[in-house]
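Protein folds are increasingly written down as discrete tokens. With that in mind, we are printing a sequence and the tokens encoding its fold.
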Amino acid sequence: MPAFAVFEPPARAGRSAADHAERCVFLRERFNWAAFLFGPLWMIWRRLWLVLIIYLIVLGLIEFGLLRLGIASPVRSMVLFLIALLVGIEAASMRRWTLLRRGWRDRGIVIADDLEMAERRFFDSWSAESAMPPPPPYAPVSSAGVIGLFPEPGGGR
């Protein structure tokens, strides 16, 4: 079953709860064909600017190093293919890192067949959490509720 990582946007004044919930992002953990085939264009489309800069610098350094070492063109092409494969595999991680850097909160993982079911499961559990009263800050323990080696609180050995 597919897994979806859920990210909540940073809170902003004046935004309704429904608008805030509407902006939540569900990232499916899987291989991304668009990132594999069109790496830099995919990064621009997703506004992963820092990821794009790092990608271009690393790619340029690798290409420069391979040319400097006199590596043949087929080997350089294979290295570029493997880098594109890595980008396709790690696409969700790159988006996750960017969202966290922008102040989004990681709300957990949802296991579901599709996006609609993942949203339904997440928001059902989210509304159930918000409906529960908060636990008391301190709950005193009665002598009848003591479990362990001592029959009563503060009892001797």
In short: The two ends are 53 Å apart (CA to CA). The mean pLDDT is 85.
